[in-house]
């Protein structure tokens, strides 16, 4: 059966600034927490990555050839504002040129304003734990809107705020108590609401929304206790973040869990009002896999556990703990479960709750690729993964979900958050190894030609 998508569907691809740009200290860019962090064992740092900063014109040419209708990227705060609070004209110029280049090539720019790369200068003042970071974020976003909003239709606020909270250690965050983590999380929620207020009250056109990592949560068994555990996990992992962004409220089950962890943040009356009055226009979400949990009774030795990485489970005594799902296969690289149908469940859950348009801003398979002697990459595993997920996007649209686009991760090879360059996601191969930068030449993978056809056909034929 042909699976044809709505006209104007935004077929895209994604990256983030610190993972793709390189040029970490050029043209006035200052260090972010990603630049100052010690690299994970046997992985490269973020100093050069795919060197998109110097190759963006050539890369956008390839994006055009791929047929992309949209490119989801992030803006590096540290290129735009200095530690002294000054605007850096060269940083402004880079994203101006990038946006113009995309538009000239018929590609819609979809920027995220913050993707894990907090300025080191703010980190030194307490990072998101410091309330003043809210104001710094609003000032930064105003500069972005004033400079670029005339050419942008969809803005995303914070990438995977929920993963910064639950798996912060692999995303550049220092070890913190639950209390500190959730105070910082609250500041991010308020910052997001204030930025949405600024955007909506300004002279800007377009839409703005959050970009969390959302995954449906299955109970291990039919036992009511396990079903309850799955609902509680979903409230804490997913709805805490989306209820705040879309309804401006704290999810009631999440509040109970926060209290059980002694991690309820301080919330002022003004915070509650600003959150309530300023909510999202659309929901961008990243989907890699589903989650499975079981009940976790409070008993001797039961301890809360944070997630090892973005897609792994975590445990809260009295609520839930991770469980194995025997129905799902796992990725070779990180042993993340593969669950295309879970994408359909997740998209429907989001749309049921919020009735806002949705776009997937990340979904993909990280794997080691081999460049053959004739410069080809036969990544049929990636094609399989993406095809199965695109089919579920199609079925979600048939279910009635208002899906505006799909931007898999990633447009081009880049550095993984904590597993280096060898974990590749791109449609375009970048010729470098983990530590040997080689010539950084670009090659089209088999998945490039496959996705090119999907876009040209506007679906799966
Ligand atoms: C998401 C992030 O969590 O997953 C990306 O938004 C990240 O920045 C992607 O790269 C894949 O994860 P990883 O750890 O394989 O890079």
UniProtKB/TrEMBL annotation:
Family to which this protein belongs: Belongs to the glycosyl hydrolase 1 family.
Keyword list, A-Z: Glycosidase, Hydrolase
BP GO terms, sorted: carbohydrate catabolic process
Entries under Gene3D superfamilies matching the protein: Glycosidases (3.20.20.80)
PROSITE patterns: GLYCOSYL_HYDROL_F1_1, GLYCOSYL_HYDROL_F1_2
The name this protein goes by in its record: Glycoside hydrolase family 1 protein
SUPFAM superfamilies reported in the protein's UniProt record: (Trans)glycosidases
GO cellular component, one term: cytosol
Pfam families: Glyco_hydro_1 (PF00232)
The organism's place on the tree of life at top rank: Bacteria
């Amino acid at each position: 059966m042909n699976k044809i998508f709505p006209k104007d569907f935004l077929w895209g691809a994604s990256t983030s600034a610190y993972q793709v740009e390189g040029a970490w200290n050029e043209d006035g860019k200052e260090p972010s927490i990603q630049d100052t962090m010690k690299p994970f064992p046997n992985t490269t740092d973020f100093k050069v990555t795919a060197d998109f900063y110097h190759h963006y014109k050539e890369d956008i040419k390839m994006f055009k050839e791929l047929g992309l209708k949209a490119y989801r990227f992030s803006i590096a705060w540290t290129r735009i504002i200095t530690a002294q609070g000054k605007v850096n004209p060269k940083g402004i110029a880079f994203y101006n040129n990038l946006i113009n280049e995309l538009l000239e090539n018929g590609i819609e720019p979809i920027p995220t304003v913050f993707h894990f790369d907090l300025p080191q200068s703010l980190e030194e003042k307490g990072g998101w734990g410091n309330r003043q970071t809210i104001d710094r974020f609003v000032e930064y976003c105003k500069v972005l809107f004033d400079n670029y909003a005339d050419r942008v239709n969809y803005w995303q606020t914070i990438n995977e705020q929920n993963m910064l909270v639950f798996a912060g250690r692999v995303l550049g965050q220092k070890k913190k108590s639950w209390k500190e983590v959730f105070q910082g999380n609250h500041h991010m929620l308020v910052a997001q609401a204030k930025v949405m207020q600024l955007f909506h009250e300004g002279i800007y056109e377009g839409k703005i929304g959050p970009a969390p990592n959302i995954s449906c949560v299955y109970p291990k068994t039919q036992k009511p206790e396990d079903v309850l555990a799955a609902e509680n996990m979903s409230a804490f992992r997913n709805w805490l973040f989306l209820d705040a962004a879309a309804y401006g409220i704290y999810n009631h089950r999440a509040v109970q869990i926060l209290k059980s962890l002694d991690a309820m943040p301080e919330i002022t009356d003004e915070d509650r009002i600003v959150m309530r009055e300023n909510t999202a226009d659309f929901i961008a979400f990243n989907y890699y896999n589903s989650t499975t949990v079981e009940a976790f009774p409070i008993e001797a030795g039961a301890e809360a556990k944070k997630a090892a990485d973005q897609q792994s489970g975590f445990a809260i005594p009295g609520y839930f703990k991770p469980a194995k799902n025997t129905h799902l296969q796992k990725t070779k690289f990180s042993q993340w479960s593969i669950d295309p149908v879970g994408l359909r469940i997740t998209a429907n859950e989001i749309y049921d709750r919020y009735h806002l348009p949705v776009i997937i801003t990340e979904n993909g398979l990280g794997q080691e690729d081999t460049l053959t002697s004739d410069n080809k990459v036969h990544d049929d595993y990636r094609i399989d993964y993406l095809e199965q997920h695109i089919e579920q996007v199609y079925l979600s649209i048939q279910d009635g979900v208002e899906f505006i686009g799909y931007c898999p991760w990633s447009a081009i090879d880049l550095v993984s958050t904590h597993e280096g360059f060898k974990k590749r996601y791109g449609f375009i191969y970048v010729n470098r190894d983990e530590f040997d930068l080689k010539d950084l030449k670009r090659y089209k993978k088999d998945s490039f030609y496959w996705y090119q056809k999907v876009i040209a056909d506007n679906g799966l034929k």
